[in-house]
Specification:
By secondary structure, this protein is an alpha/beta fold. The chain has helices at about 35-40, 40-50, 65-70, 105-115, 145-150, 160-170, 190-200, 205-215, 230-240, 285-305, 310-315, 320-335, 345-355, 365-370, 370-380, 380-390, 395-415, 425-430, 435-445, 445-450, 460-470; strands spanning about 5, 25-30, 55-60, 80-85, 90-95, 95-100, 120-125, 180, 220-225, 245, 250, 255-260, 275-280. The chain folds into 2 domains: about 5-280, NAD(P)-binding Rossmann-like Domain (Rossmann fold), CATH 3.40.50; about 285-470, N-(1-d-carboxylethyl)-l-norvaline Dehydrogenase, domain 2. The mean pLDDT is about 95.
Length: about 475
């Protein structure tokens, strides 16, 4: 029987770059999923190892279930990253996560940790839907969970947790906090600040919260690494490589990137020494990634899913789909972008497809395609609007959106579960739609996805009807 993951059982060549027992918590992270463990936690450990600092251990907060805590707690927070590229896989144990909390079980402990004076940075990966934003871009104050937090319950939402933590920091005299969003949202830091300001204005403690927000910093950031869901086969392979069993192993590609706006309220880890890019303007990097990598990922997920492909790598091996993905980037996306210094967009696009084609990463089309109503506005609809604004027809972007529409309609027709925060609204909209044009009109009418402008655009509607007709 393979031993459980414990530091003493890990071969020397696979051990963490730091002594986990020597780290104190200086970072709180909301959204303790696989991506954080394969990305920010790795950067943080490498930065600590290079600088010799022991102040940047991470308290990870699971926002929903206790599953991650149940995996990590028996292993003293240790887990491994299984990296799969073109050659043999490699594996390394990471020790930067020093505490794991589960928000629904103990929301008070989450607030206490955010308020801890030793904590100066909070990061988060809660996915687009975790921000509970309204279609217009502000906080959705009609959301029942937001209303419950505002009414004074122990907070369960991200903005509620942050607000309560900031209020308690004020009471404790804690130094200003830096909040780094690592989710795929346009100008994610300023966006989160606006949501927090909306929450504060609706709160009984409005004055105090707004004062705290004035001293906090919300830098924008852009993250990139492909992290597919871990399977039992991955755990078996990790056990064979490590010689111990790791129930919390995460799988990732070799590529790793983090671009952060250099705007911090106080101390921070030396992430730049670990390879992160600190810059005065994240926007060009962010736009290139969202509109090229993320949008193409979504396109391949929906088109590939409709053709029965289980993984993105399978979809890219389909020459027609690979060609359409390439066209999306060259024909629709690149004309809307201003490249950051040092980034060749054509070369970047080729790299994106090469990464997607990595056969060792079994990134499922269903996983990439989930939460489409939250992802489409930030990944594809900005490109659509920019192309329409210069009287160009965004045919490939419309194809990607149409593929999502057809996928929603097919899931509704077959009774398949639609993994989307607006599943009920979407499926209700298409349930009585007969024919392609009716499906398009029904989904275009969901203002929380398409706003008020796109449904009124005859060119975009016609493109959707044509493309959906080819896919149906």
């Amino acid at each position: 029987m393979t031993a459980r993951l414990e530091l003493a059982n890990v071969p020397a060549g696979h051990r963490p770059d730091v002594d986990p027992a020597g780290l104190s918590v200086g970072i709180v992270h909301l959204g303790l999923g696989a991506f954080h463990r394969a990305h920010q936690a790795v950067f943080t450990e490498q930065a600590a190892a290079i600088s010799g600092s022991t102040s940047w251990g991470i308290c990870g907060v699971s926002q929903r279930s206790a599953a991650v805590r149940e995996q990590l707690a028996p292993q003293d927070g240790l887990y491994s990253v299984l990296t799969r590229g073109q050659g043999d896989p490699s594996i390394r144990v990471i020790g930067s996560i020093r505490e794991v909390l589960t928000a629904p079980e103990d929301p008070g402990a989450v607030v206490d940790r955010i308020a801890d004076p030793a904590v100066s940075v909070l990061t988060l990966t809660v996915t687009e839907k975790g921000y509970r934003a309204a279609a217009a871009g502000g906080l959705d104050l009609t959301d029942p969970e937001i209303q419950a937090d505002l009414a004074g319950r122990p907070p369960r939402t991200v903005v509620g947790q942050l607000a309560a933590g900031l209020a308690r920091r004020a009471a404790h005299g804690s130094p200003p906090l830096t909040v780094v969003s690592c989710d795929n949202l346009v100008a994610n830091g300023p966006f989160l600040r606006r949501l927090m300001e909306g929450y504060a204005a609706a709160s009984p403690d409005a004055k105090q919260l707004l004062e705290q927000l004035a001293t906090a910093r919300f830098p924008a950031s852009m993250v990139d690494r492909i992290v597919p869901a871990t399977t039992d086969a991955d755990r078996d392979e990790a056990a064979a490589l490590l010689g111990v069993r790791d129930e919390a192993v995460v799988v990732a590609e070799p590529f790793l990137q983090w671009v952060i706006e250099d705007d911090f309220a106080g101390a921070r880890p030396d992430w730049d020494k670990a390879g992160a890019i600190l810059t005065g303007d994240v926007a060009p990097w962010e736009q290139a990634k969202l509109r090229m990598l993320n949008a193409t990922h979504s396109m391949l997920a929906y088109l590939g899913g409709l053709r029965g492909y289980e993984t993105i790598a399978e979809a890219v091996r389909d020459e027609e789909l690979a060609g359409l993905a390439q066209q999306l980037m060259t024909d629709d996306v690149i004309p809307t972008l201003t490249p950051p210094d040092g980034l060749d967009l054509t070369e970047y696009g080729a790299t994106v497809l090469k990464r997607f084609a990595n056969p060792a990463l079994k990134h499922r089309t269903a996983q990439v395609g989930m939460d489409g109503s939250a992802k489409l506005p930030v990944r594809l609809l900005g490109t659509v609007r920019d192309r329409l604004a210069v009287n160009a027809e965004p045919r490939l972007a419309a194809l990607a959106v149409a593929a999502w529409m057809v996928s929603v309609a097919k899931a509704t027709e077959t009774g398949t579960v639609l993994d989307d925060p607006q599943a009920n609204k979407l499926q209700t909209a298409v349930s009585s739609a007969t024919g392609t044009a009716a499906v398009v009109d029904a989904l275009l009418g969901v203002e929380s996805v398409f706003g008020a402008d796109l449904p009124a655009n005859a060119v975009f509607r016609q493109l959707l009807v044509e493309q959906a007709g080819r896919l149906s």
